[in-house]
């Protein structure tokens, strides 16, 4: 019975490794193909949808961003703090804190500007600093007295990655232009959205359109609601269209990659192919281990 239980556990690991390796291979291969098959666009003439851009990072004057561990000015950061632990002959670095900036980025390619929402992106910055210290937070005040004595034996490792103004940036994701008269109007969808908004304040809706005061809207009154909602949707669209065009990039709705990197497209794709190859090796090893384990019991 124990042999069967051990075999079952081994099979679970080998099958899991094979499946995870296969999934990782397909995912990374697909991402590499998306990068290489998507042509580079200029911001001024980019189509709406999934696009690839090259440009230079610029500062957003209204947003002041600094690295949380170093205090250095930047436009985006990611950090990790680990504590060194040693117990029962086991030594390891245990993550204790991490974080990622959500500040928007501004990309300029010489033809226009695009604001980028980095949430959900795979960000690959070239600037990476790593060091060690004995404070829980490297910018915190030095501990003195009894607390300083208690913490003197602790070791921490800090990692901070940053994007800076003036750096080149490769970006691939979902591109949309708001304002400037470029977006179309789905009148029925916009009308329904206005009606849903008005229904949120049903008392106000009755006050505006319940002419006979009976506490509900009949068909004639609902027709007036629909007409008013249509006119409101058209007016809102005109107001948005009159605003200056604003380009934005964000995470795609599908499973397509959303990548922001200081490296070029070919370098990123090459790394993805290597990761796909590693996944294929893991998948093959898992499959061979599964076949060998099954052969033991002659299933």
In short:
The protein has 299 residues and is of the alpha+beta class.
Q: What's the number of structural domains?
A: 2
Shape call: extended
Mean pLDDT: 82
> What is the H/E order?
HEEEEEEEEEHEEHHHEEH
User: Main sheet, how many strands, which sense, barrel?
Assistant: 5 strands, mixed, barrel
The number of distinct helices, counting runs of at least 4 residues, comes to 6
Question: Distance between termini?
Answer: 16 Å
Judged by helices, strands and strand pairing, the structural class is alpha+beta
Query: Rg from C-alpha positions?
Result: 28 Å
Helix content: 40-55%
Low confidence ranges:
144-149
Strand order of the largest sheet: 1-6-7-12-11
What percent of residues are in strands? 25-35%
Q: Would you count the extended β strands for me? A: 13
Catalytic activity: S-ubiquitinyl-[E2 ubiquitin-conjugating enzyme]-L-cysteine + [acceptor protein]-L-lysine = [E2 ubiquitin-conjugating enzyme]-L-cysteine + N(6)-ubiquitinyl-[acceptor protein]-L-lysine
Transmembrane segments: 272-294
Subcellular location: Membrane
EC number: 2.3.2.27
Notes on the protein architecture:
The protein is α+β, with helices and mostly antiparallel strands and 299 residues long. The chain folds into 2 domains: 2-179 and 244-297, no CATH class; 184-243. It has 6 helices and 13 strands. It has helices at residues 2-37, 145-151, 187-199, 202-209, 219-242, 265-297; strands spanning 49-58, 65-66, 73-74, 76-87, 90-100, 105-108, 113-116, 122-124, 127-133, 156-163, 168-178, 246-250, 259-261. A 5-stranded mixed barrel has the order 1-6-7-12-11. Strands 5-4-10-9 form a 4-stranded antiparallel beta sheet, with no helix packed on it. Strand 6 and strand 7 (113-116) form a beta hairpin. Helix 1 (2-37) packs antiparallel against helix 6 (265-297). The longest helix is centred in the N-terminal third of the chain and has 36 residues, at 2-37. The model is unreliable at 144-149 (pLDDT under 50).
């Amino acid at each position: 019975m124990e042999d069967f239980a051990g075999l079952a556990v081994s099979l679970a690991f080998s099958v899991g490794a094979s499946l995870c390796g296969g999934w990782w291979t397909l995912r990374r291969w697909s991402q590499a193909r998306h990068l290489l098959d998507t042509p580079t666009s200029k911001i001024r003439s980019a189509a709406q949808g999934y696009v690839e851009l090259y440009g230079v990072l610029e500062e957003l004057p209204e947003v002041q961003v600094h690295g949380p561990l170093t205090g250095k000015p930047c436009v985006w950061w990611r950090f990790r703090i680990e504590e060194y632990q040693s117990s029962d002959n086991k030594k390891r670095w245990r993550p204790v804190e991490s974080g990622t900036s959500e500040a928007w980025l501004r990309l300029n390619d010489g033809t226009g500007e695009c604001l980028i929402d980095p949430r959900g992106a795979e960000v690959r910055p070239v600037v990476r600093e790593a060091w060690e210290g004995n404070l829980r937070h490297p910018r915190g005040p030095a501990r003195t007295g009894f607390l300083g004595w208690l913490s003197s034996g602790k070791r921490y490792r800090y990692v901070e990655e940053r994007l800076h103004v003036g750096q080149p940036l490769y970006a691939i994701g979902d591109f949309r232009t708001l304002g400037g008269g470029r977006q179309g109007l789905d009148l029925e969808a916009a009308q329904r959205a206005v009606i849903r908004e008005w229904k949120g304040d049903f008392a106000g809706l009755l006050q505006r359109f319940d002419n006979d005061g009976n506490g509900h809207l009949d068909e004639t009154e609902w027709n007036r609601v629909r007409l008013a909602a249509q006119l409101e949707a058209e007016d809102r669209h005109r107001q948005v269209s009159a605003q200056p065009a604003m380009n934005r990039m964000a995470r795609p709705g599908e499973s397509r990659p959303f990548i922001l990197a200081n490296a070029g497209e070919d370098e990123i794709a090459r790394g993805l192919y290597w990761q796909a190859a590693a996944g294929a090796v893991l998948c093959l090893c898992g499959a061979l281990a599964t076949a060998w384990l099954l052969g033991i019991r002659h299933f």
